[in-house]
Specification:
Chain A: Pfam families: Urm1 (PF09138). Chain A: Belongs to the URM1 family. Chain A: It is found in: Cytoplasm. The complex is a heterotrimer of chains A (103), B (363) and C (464). Chain A has 1 helix and 7 strands; from the N terminus they run ββαβββββ. Chain A is mostly beta strands. In chain A, the strands form 2 sheets. A 5-stranded mixed β-sheet of chain A has the order 2-1-7-5-6, with no helix packed on it. A two-stranded antiparallel sheet of chain A has the order 3-4. Chain A is globular and about 40 Å long. The termini of chain A are far apart. Chain B is built from 14 helices and 10 strands. The C terminus of chain B is likely disordered. Among the domains of chain C are: 40 residues, no CATH class; 225 residues, Rossmann fold (3-Layer(aba) Sandwich). By secondary structure, chain C is an alpha/beta fold. In chain C, the strands form 3 sheets. Chain C has a 6-stranded mixed β-sheet with strand order 5-4-3-8-10-9, sandwiched between helices. Classes of the chains: A mainly beta (103), B alpha/beta (363), C alpha/beta (464). Chains in contact: A-C, B-C.
């Protein structure tokens, strides 16, 4: 199975949930849920299983990110990119920014 | 031996008071519960001696306890009020028909005259029929608008000065939050008033304004009051549901939050330059309204013309699109034409909708 | 009874999936950000964002009596909103270097690291603002206990509340400021109260610092998302009376220091994206409810509620902010009726209101828990100066101090004080609180003196 190499960044406090790492490069399977290509939805649940260090409820709500967490895909608002249905491409640059005070 | 009541220091404490967290005995709880309602009535000068008061009775916990407490305080403090029960029959099978049975039992227990006024009698539509037409989305709009008018019309028939409703502190706090959330500045200002009087309309007040819902249930439970406890089968929309959940969460974080929200609401003042709708009178039915036609008339027109969305959202635009109402559509009888039921000899007024229909038809 | 009176349909406000892929403004470039229901390209987004800031500062400038050349202070927490604000102020002020709007800009940060036993935030913050070359003031929250953080500049007496709720005024004890603040906040287990205290101590400290540095204006970075959360949380905490002052774009409540909130029209989403594009790195500063569950405090719960609702109904924040903007400070607000803790106005008679609707005693019983109970409950006929619990013994000094203190609080601070459960020794409130109590006492004394000799006076108070 082929791999996708993507860049993940965290800021606004959300990095605390990811071992205080602000930026990381990861390789994820191009099809986490075969036969479909890997989507944002797959990525988020993959991050929960593989990267998240603590308190999943502060990162996720249902199968998406918690309200108040911004997501940019290649400098573009993910709400314009299809949100959970967006298909991840090799080289994507994905940023998670928390706008919340309470964590 | 359990711990003693923090007020009297004699009896065993059996409850933790939701409003304050104090541990109280039964009698002291009754005392503070009733006294706070008495204070609200006295401090706001709600009634005069000799007033005729209709208690809006749905058979639910709030209105059942209200009827009980009104009768009790009226006797204890000699308010000198003449009390009536006034019920609205929205026509919801499996909900209102059952709860009206409770009201009829209350009528006998408290020996208060009862008047029931129904949607189908007044508007020609029951809620069951309305829901069939409009679905479950906006049905609460119809019910809320229709109920308000129905109560006022019932009050005119009973020739009372004043209607008291069972709205409690939780309801009012929730309404304050709702009005902020939907930006309804006019209602935000009005919703914490304990007593409202429209032009030519009957005074309406909320003696339970500062009374916690939980304490009403507690009171009814210990006093073994008979009430109907099923939620309406046509539940409210999701937005209000969010506000309600939030309020319950707030209360669990800090029990005084409900009173604190009402305190805030009472302090709100609106900038002078903000335009508020001016109150006038509906030209069709004579009910108070800030538009040419009151909401009830517009909603009814929509129902009768098969355009149930007419009164939802932007009324003006919808009416423009669909034009004026044809002449032959049924309307609500004009307010001035309601006959007062002043048959003093027949003190107990039971559901006499047929009788009323004739009276309304007489013109 | 069903409490629904009328529901307006909210159909229009429900989240929608955008269909156009182009910017609504220039109509040509590809849209990359969705703000409520509008899509923008990067350039137009930045233009609109900066425009909102400029509109607000220009409005406050035209209303200001200082014109150009005002010395201002920027309250800088290090969070995204204040980070963006500092950048915007800088761009705005340096746009025409020889015609600067503000003669001097001071950046002030208050370090709260003591609360969470973490290392100081000051070095990081100082580093992140260094490039602007503005004077930087880094303060520690505990230093609000210094005798010079007062109106008079030197007041070394404090209010103490002991385990048995005895309230007294004492000479400033010898513990260090850090010990006093830790002890205060450790005794407050209720996080709603803790957040309130921290916020108002910070605000008082900022105002005092601005004043002593000759700044006539304090910029605070509250954005519209934050303000709408505040509108709901202040309402929920019984602060409706002061809400318009605490959430408006501008207020002169502190007289010589005007508070301006130039970020009031931007959503936190806009700020997050602006900072990302501009490469502005914010400093993440934890607060006492960070990483906690939603019911940790009223503030935290409200944030969860509003942010969640905004996701489903993207007009939530703007509707709340608009509602808040239509509220105005009451005509009955009096400058001298300032709560000694939060410095916000209090309503006359709010204590009587509370005692009428929350009855805590019965007439025949003398309460067993004594006069000095911090649960500031009293009988219906209490007049100011009487004992808090309604026993009319004003002869002893302790109950005098107790009553004076209780009378100098706003409704919400009284609720806060009630929720403090002192478990460890005693709590000490900063000197500015004691100074406020004494100032109020003096004013009342003067009023009474005046009443006494009124018929012999030929002129009004102001003429003297």
């Amino acid at each position: 199975m082929s791999l996708l190499k993507i860049k993940l960044s965290f800021s606004g406090g959300i990095e605390l949930l990811f071992d205080n790492i602000k930026q990381t490069s990861v390789e994820i399977p191009s099809s986490i849920n075969p036969p479909n290509s890997t989507t944002m939805k797959d990525l988020i649940s993959w991050m929960k299983d593989n990267l998240l260090k603590e308190r999943p409820e502060l990162f996720m709500s249902g199968d998406t990110v918690r309200p108040g967490i911004l997501v940019l895909i290649n400098d573009s608002d993910w709400e314009l990119e299809g949100e959970l249905e967006y298909e991840i491409k090799d080289g994507d640059d994905i940023v998670f920014i928390s706008t919340l005070h309470g964590g | 031996m359990g711990r003693l009541c923090v007020i009297c220091d004699k009896e065993r404490a059996i409850i933790k008071r939701p409003k304050t967290g104090q541990k109280l005995c039964k009698e002291c709880f009754y005392y503070v519960f009733e006294t706070e309602i008495h204070n609200a009535i006295i401090d706001n000068k709600l009634f005069k001696k000799g007033d005729r008061i209709a208690i809006a009775a749905s058979g639910g916990k709030d209105s059942t306890v209200l009827a009980h407490v009104m009768k009790l305080l009226n006797e204890r403090y000699q308010y000198g009020l003449e009390l009536f029960l006034l019920s609205v029959d929205e026509g919801i099978t499996g909900y209102r028909d059952d709860s009206l049975e409770t009201v009829k039992r209350n009528q006998q227990q408290y020996e208060l005259p009862l008047k029931i006024i129904s949607y189908s009698e007044l508007y020609g539509w029951s809620m069951d029929q309305i829901v069939k037409e409009v679905g479950l989305k906006n049905n609460c709009t119809f019910c809320g608008v229709f109920r308000r008018q129905a109560l006022d019309r019932g009050a005119v028939i009973l020739n009372v000065d004043h209607i008291v409703t069972g709205h409690n502190a939780d309801d009012i706090a929730e309404t304050v939050l709702m009005n902020i959330l939907r930006g309804d500045i006019a209602r935000l200002q009005r919703c914490t008033e304990i007593c409202t009087t429209g032009d030519g309309c009957i005074r309406r007040s909320k003696p339970f304004k500062y009374t916690y819902e939980k304490e009403i249930v507690m009171y009814a439970y210990f006093k073994k009051l008979d009430y109907f406890s099923t939620e309406c089968i046509y539940s409210p929309n999701s937005y209000r549901g969010h506000a309600r959940t939030f309020l319950k969460d707030l209360e669990s974080v800090r029990p005084s939050a409900i009173i604190d929200i009402i305190h805030s609401g009472e302090a709100f003042e609106i900038k002078k330059e903000v335009k508020l709708p001016t109150q006038g009178v509906c030209k069709r039915c004579g009910y108070m309204s800030s538009n040419e036609l009151c909401k009830a008339c517009v909603l009814l027109e929509g129902l009768n013309r098969g355009l149930p969305k007419l009164g939802i959202g932007k009324t003006h635009r919808m009416r423009k699109i669909h034009g004026d109402m044809p002449q032959d559509t049924a309307i609500i009888p004009h307010f001035n034409k309601i006959k007062i039921n002043d048959d003093e000899n027949n003190n107990i007024i039971i559901d006499d909708s047929n009788n009323l229909k004739e009276k309304l038809a007489e013109k | 009874m069903c409490s629904i009176q009328e529901e307006t349909s909210l159909d229009l406000n429900v989240k929608f999936k955008p269909t156009t892929k182009n910017c609504v403004k220039c109509k040509t470039a590809k849209a990359i950000i969705l703000i409520r229901h509008s899509t923008y390209c990067k350039k137009c987004f930045q233009h609109v964002f900066v425009g909102k800031f400029r509109k607000n500062v220009e409005k406050s400038r035209t209303a200001s009596s200082y014109g150009s050349g005002e010395k201002i202070m920027v309250g800088f927490s290090g969070g995204p909103s204040s980070r963006a604000m500092l950048q915007l102020i800088n761009e705005y002020n340096e746009a025409i270097p020889h015609k600067r709007v503000y003669s001097e800009i001071v950046v002030c940060h208050i370090d709260e690291s003591l609360l969470l036993n973490q290392k100081s935030t000051i070095p990081l913050i100082e580093q992140s603002v260094r490039k602007y070359n503005y004077p930087f003031i880094g303060l520690y929250l505990q230093d609000i206990y210094n005798s010079d953080v007062t109106k008079s500049g030197f007041y070394n007496s404090v209010i103490e509340i002991e385990i048995d709720a005895k309230i007294s005024q004492q000479k400033d004890p010898t513990e260090s400021p850090a010990e006093k603040l830790s002890n205060l906040l450790n005794n407050i287990s209720n996080l709603t109260v803790k957040e309130d205290f921290i916020w108002y101590l910070k605000l008082c400290y900022l105002i005092d610092t601005a004043r002593k540095n000759g700044c006539t204006r304090l910029f605070l970075g509250d954005c519209s998302t934050r303000l709408s959360i505040k509108i709901i949380s202040l309402t929920s905490k019984g602060r409706g009376f002061s809400l318009p002052l605490e959430t408006s774009g501008e207020t002169n409540w502190f007289e010589d220091v005007i508070i301006t909130r130039p970020m009031k029209d931007m959503l936190s989403k806009e700020i997050g994206i602006y900072n990302q594009f501009a490469g502005l790195d914010d400093v993440y500063v934890q607060n006492v409810t960070s990483m906690m569950h939603a019911k940790a405090s009223i503030e935290r719960l409200t944030e969860d509620f509003i942010v969640g609702l905004e996701k489903e109904f993207p007009s939530t924040v703007s509707t709340i902010a608009r509602t808040g903007a239509k509220l105005t400070p009451s005509d009955s607000i009096m400058k001298e009726n300032r709560c000694v803790i939060c410095l916000m106005p209090y309503q006359e008679n709010n204590k009587i209101w509370q005692n009428r609707i929350i009855v805590m005693t019965i007439p025949s019983s003398q309460q067993s828990n004594g006069c000095n109970d911090i649960q500031l409950n009293c009988s219906k006929n209490t007049t100011s100066g009487g004992c808090i619990n309604g026993c009319n013994d004003t002869s002893n000094d302790e109950s005098m101090v107790n009553a004076e203190f209780a009378d100098s609080l706003c409704y919400a601070c009284r609720v806060d004080i009630r929720d403090i459960k002192i478990t460890n020794k005693k709590i000490i409130l900063p000197p500015y609180v004691a100074e406020g109590v004494e100032e109020r006492k003096k004013k009342i004394n003067r009023k009474q003196m005046r009443k006494h000799i009124e018929e012999y006076l030929l002129c009004s108070e102001e003429e003297l």
